[in-house]
Amino acid sequence: MRILVVEDEVAMAQSLRAGLTAEGFAVDVAGDGEEGLWYASEVDYDAIILDLMLPKVNGYKVCAQLRERDDWTPILMLTAKDGHLDEAEGLDTGADDYLTKPFNFVVLLARLRSLLRRRGSARPATLEAGDLTLDPATHEVRRDGRLIDVTPREFSILEYLLSHVGEAVTKQTLLEHVWDFDFDGGPNIVEVYVGSLRKKIDIPFGRQSIVTVRGAGYKMDPSGG
Amino acid sequence: MRILVVEDEVAMAQSLRAGLTAEGFAVDVAGDGEEGLWYASEVDYDAIILDLMLPKVNGYKVCAQLRERDDWTPILMLTAKDGHLDEAEGLDTGADDYLTKPFNFVVLLARLRSLLRRRGSARPATLEAGDLTLDPATHEVRRDGRLIDVTPREFSILEYLLSHVGEAVTKQTLLEHVWDFDFDGGPNIVEVYVGSLRKKIDIPFGRQSIVTVRGAGYKMDPSGG
DNA sequence: CGAGCTCTTCAGCAGACCTTCAGCCTGGAC
DNA sequence: GTCCAGGCTGAAGGTCTGCTGAAGAGCTCG
């Protein structure tokens, strides 16, 4: 899951990045509205956390412009303390939820998760493909009920593939959603991880759930292989 | 367990904070109704202690507004001496219990505990995972019936883990639910406490109930290890 | 006021994990 | 069959996460 944080206060931006990264999100930070719009046009984010008070282009405008462009990425707006009057306006311009500063990180996470969930229109709590299941809450991966031990990075990749079951996902996309923005390694690292995932979730079970689509990346077999 | 106290009398607020903190709760204090509503919207409290007589927005209104927002956090209302007439109204607006001033702290604790218990829809009075039990009322931790001596902080952590059995709980989450709002230490302190908890509840019994989930925190084994 | 307990910080360590790289394999074009 | 780009894999190193013991600060109680 890749999140864009548009926030000019360095301290806030840093702590958001740290916290969200710790939660397993890949995070990009933009320092003003203009930069935010540009990032959003370049990368397909899973959600955007948008401060209202921004240099150059303020939050409302960023939000409005995105929607005008037909970009419906969920937006969580951050407003200053006394944001009562602004609430209506914020939601009007197309934000999906808003949060007043200062806020508790747990709250932000909860809201963010609820946005991400809502988007996929009632995505089930556990991701599945045949007898392969992944539970984000317990961080457990199972095949045929048997628990499989995976590393954090393997978990993230599998989570992404399972939430796009049946679609061919390019290595580039995986790099962008699972790794941090400033990661500059090549696509080979994805191959390495897919390889090690296969060794854990497919080979021991004689399955083939992660299918290589030459030139187009990988695809999770809806039947689980 | 994190409690919000909405109370304008400084002395009362202080003593509630002191007493509840001593019992291992994390406590936030709001000085008036408006502030209380704001806190409640930002943080996911386990319960709210709400004075009736408040500046700006009184207790009834706070209560009503919370329920209107679909916030069903248990509320314990504090009313003035002659509160007979108010009782019905208080419960009507959505408070879960009420208490007339002056009251005994032990009584308040008992009511609060009963609220917290009730909330989880008949959550058992004692939290359990296999033969490991924790009784919030008596502050006792037992394994296989044998009493184990734990410090307040250790108790809080164990309580949180036991009330989220099976889920991976982030260190950040523990920091936010077990420590006070303004604590700014790093996650290492959680590691230290988990270490000392393990030395008390796991190692002497040859068990492993608190499982480390690399990159995602800790998880209480439902079977108790 | 001192003893004892708890809380918190810190630095060092071990092991898990991440990343890179070189060499090999495979599928498709010709 | 040959060639090539794309994909796979095992090994090696460096980095990071989590664990631990120690030590000082703060608090409570006698």
Would you write up a description of this structure?
Two copies of one chain form a homodimer. In chain A, α2 (33-42) runs parallel beside α3 (59-68) and α6 crosses α8. The first copy, chain A, is 40% helix and 21% strand. In chain A, 37% of the residues are buried. Chain A is an alpha/beta fold and 225 residues long. Chain A starts with a strand and ends in a 5-residue tail after the last strand. Chain A is built from eight helices and twelve strands. In chain A, the strands form three sheets. A five-stranded parallel β-sheet of chain A has the order 2-1-3-4-5, with helices on both faces. The first copy, chain A, has a four-stranded antiparallel β-sheet with strand order 6-7-8-9, with helices on one face. A three-stranded antiparallel β-sheet of chain A has the order 10-12-11. Residues 81-91 and 120-124 of chain A have low confidence and may be disordered. The longest helix of chain A is centred in the middle third of the chain and has 15 residues, at 105-119. The structure holds a DNA duplex (30 and 30 nucleotides).
Structure keywords:
4-stranded antiparallel beta sheet; DNA-binding; 5-stranded parallel beta sheet; 225 residues; 12 strands; elongated; homodimer; alpha/beta
Q: Averaged pLDDT of chain A, please? A: 82
In angstroms, what separates the terminal alpha carbons of chain A?
Answer: 24 Å
Output the structural class of chain A. alpha/beta
Task: Pick out the low-confidence regions of chain A.
Answer: 81-91, 120-124
What sequence of helices (H) and strands (E) makes up the elements of chain A? EHEHEHEHEHEEEEHEHHEE
